[in-house]
Amino acid sequence: TRDPRAEGYNAYVHYETMVNECLMTLHSTADQNAALYRMLEYLGTHLDCEALLLYEGRLDPRVMITYAWTRSGQEPSRQPLKMDYAEYLKQWYLKMAHNEPILIRDVKALYASSPELCEFLGDSKVDRMIIVPLLENQRLIGFLRADDPEPGQMDFAAAFCRILSYYILSVLRQRDLICDLELTSRHDQLT
Q1: How far apart are CA 147 and CA 132, in angstroms?
Q2: Where are the alpha helices (DSSP H) in 71-153?
Q3: Residues with Cβ within 8 Å of residue 174, at least 6 apart in sequence
Q4: Which candidate, 186, 169, 137, 173, places its Cα nearest to that of 54?
Q5: pTM of the prediction?
Q6: Residue 141: φ, ψ to 5°
Q7: Do residues 49 and 43 touch, judged by C-beta distance below 8 A?
Q8: Per-residue model confidence as pLDDT tens digits over 72-114
Q9: Strands 102-104 and 129-136
């Protein structure tokens, strides 16, 4: 006989173990860029995705891929994408503003019903996609995109990435702070 409580407990332990391992991976280096690449690789391999892409809004109102891991090793296009309030993105903005992940279980159907997304999302070879917002002070500064996670694990993968989004934001803040400190250290009052 199956014990649903034991299955639930085992799933919880597995989930917690993955979070801990991912955080150890993230903090295994003092270099924030390397930490983010390692984290994306960990997520991609353990969530069985084809790609994990981190978009940042450095060129407001445009976002671009700043960090990426792909199973194939092929580098994705890093062209800036315009994040406007077009009709096809309004529902996404509302969900992301509430820190809710977007689960797209059939990308091809979405492309057929909203061709504008082809240009925004790019790769039409993807079957499934998860988009997890990165919010800082209630402001969308980017998002994490997971391509082709296992169909039966999409809800789990979305929740997992949502939890880790706070740590990603922390590392991005550390990276930016270090860059600012390095820049200001080159300009003291005597120079």
Answers
A1: 12
A2: 87-97, 107-113, 116-121
A3: 32
A4: 169
A5: 0.82
A6: -110, -5
A7: yes
A8: 887 776 666 665 545 556 677 788 888 899 999 998 888 787 7
A9: antiparallel
